[in-house]
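Standup notes
- DV: blocked on the single-chain target, sequence here:
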Amino acid sequence: MATRKTSPDDLLGPVTLAVGQEDLLLDRAVRDVVAAARAADADTDVRDLAPEQLQPGALAELTSPSLFAERKVLIVRNAQDLSADTVKDVKAYLDDPIEDISLVLVHAGGAKGKGLVDAARKAGAREVACPKTTKPAERLTFVRQEFRTLGRSATPEACQALVDSIGSDLRELASAVSQLTSDVDGTIDEAVVGRYYTGRAEASSFNVADRAVEGRAAEALEALRWSLSTGVAPVLITSALAQGVRAIGKLSSARGGRPADLARELGMPPWKIDRVRQQMRGWTPDGVSLALRAVAEADAGVKGGGDDPEYALEKAVVAVARAARMRRG
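- DV (later): unblocked, structure below
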């Protein structure tokens, strides 16, 4: 029985369990096993199977001894959707896996089909976590790791600019990192990201928010119209506006100190402390309150409380930009 825990580094272990809903990470988990198997044996037989292709009894046939004793990789996609009888077959196989066969179970996680996940873990499967990235901080961590994996250095500002410009799709983020590391020598900074992805950056919700909180109403409106024309969801823009104004409110009410100390206190990276400090010139407590109310009204408008989401956003952008200039006015 395969009761010993397989090392995370043992790509050729008998069973790999890839759990989560992030497609890029799931595909990479599969790719790594296939690459390791083909490095060990160029003639490795790879079978990529959907649940409907793995009917009861099919696993026994696929894992039966070959006349040529070839290495195999069996990939079972969407393992949570396997029939009950097939799950029994897989569990039985986990008790006595076959040498030179690598079974990869790709599972979405959650309650459905959890018994199979539990059985694979009990059998000592090598597990790869592939959680969906839902938070900006997680995407930022992903970009930093991509640069490190490729052996390249990128500034924190460059990583943030890339996330702001590309958005939430990990495949696009990974592709962008790969392109930058291939085309650019030396440390990758924010200016480099801007040159490569200026069109994307202009369309980003964060660019709208940055111009608004800096009091640059005309530029913010131009960025807003470009964003909407390129398909940026209005709700992302109100979210970015809210984050920008809240960051100014947090920093303006915090005690003075070094960026590193303030970063720990406010939950922001040190480089963002410096950026927000530059943006908060001209802001007053009343201005922050007015801006937050304007953003809240816009948020209600774009979520169905108004007839014209575009107008609601334009009104909010102008209100935020005016609030940013209250002290100067």
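- Follow-up: The first strand starts at residue 15 and ends at 20.
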